[in-house]
Design brief:
With 367 residues, this protein is an alpha/beta fold. 47% of the residues lie in helices and 12% in strands. It contains 14 helices and nine strands. The strands form two sheets. Strands 1-9-2-3-8-7-6 form a seven-stranded mixed beta sheet, with helices on both faces. Strands 4-5 form a two-stranded antiparallel ribbon. Helix 11 packs across helix 12 and helix 11 packs parallel to helix 14. The longest helix is centred in the middle third of the chain and has 23 residues. It is elongated. The N terminus is likely disordered.
Length: 367
Amino acid sequence: MAAGLLVAGIAVAAVAGINTMPAQGLLDPDAAGPEGSRALTALLRDRGVEVTVARDRAAALQALEGNGATLAIADTAPLDDDDILELRDAAAGVVLLEPRTRDLRLLLGDARSAGFTDGSTVEPDCDLPAADISGPVSPGEVFTGEGVDHACYPAASGYGLVASVDDAASVVAVDATALLVNQRLADEGNAALGLNLLGATGAVVWYLPSIGDGSITAAPSLGELTPAWVTPAILLLLGSVVAAAVWRGRRFGPLVAENLPVTVRASETTEGRARLYAASADPVHALDQLRREALRRIARSLGLGSADAGAIADAAASRIGDDRTRVRGILLDDLPRNDRELVDAADRLRDVEAAVLRSVRPERNTP
């Protein structure tokens, strides 16, 4: 059992690791696919903005040094806290394209993720010029607005863009996967927002961190990734399972052989089914069972074989000389709403069946 739990824990950790890996080409400024950002890069360069693509931290720091450029950074998973702070200090402004909880905590104080929107279009509704002049967009992930200078695009329980501005550098967090990738850049004000956020300083260093790019050189073990209380909790759970197995096993004792099959009287089966129908409070279903058997017996009496229910009801009405609509209602259509109506419907059903039987075998009516 312990081995099974260990394997399950490793599998969960592996799945979680896969889910945190960035999609291939996502927000890559050189990628022309739907999830890339080559279109935005081309727009920036057409407007005279110098765009430098950095695929390792050293190249990003070198491009930022003394350049007064805006840092556009995608997935930061390979970097540690000091790496991110060093990059922020070297840039004139930072745009978080895929903000993680750690990024928000480090660079935007109290801001946190607040979930995702339903894709509705919203207005900027803030005084941040880059957003205000860009117009409406349809944000993806939204963030809380505590502790930031600007919170734009209010949607769901958060904001589609949050920003802090100080003398050193500005920091903006926005879900670029929903706004600035190639397949969505032409929607609403997405292109204008991307140009205004990234082109303000005239130079952009677009940094795509890669595995092994940060200061952390060794992959953490499973024990380092899990909280300290996990191992004691697993041991306690294993002990509880063993104790429960011993306790319940002693209580049950040995198995007792029983002769099969067990014979049950038909009346008990009928009564049990009736109690189930009563407990379910479903008079329509109970009446359907009565109608099914009544139709089967009427069809046998009239020699109709495997005729459908409508044909049986019509034949019964014709046989007893009653109104066709009334007989159809009794045998097929009427729906009881409570137990009282169910009893009345059962009585009418029994009367119709008895009338058919009397018409087929008149000798039974003779005193």
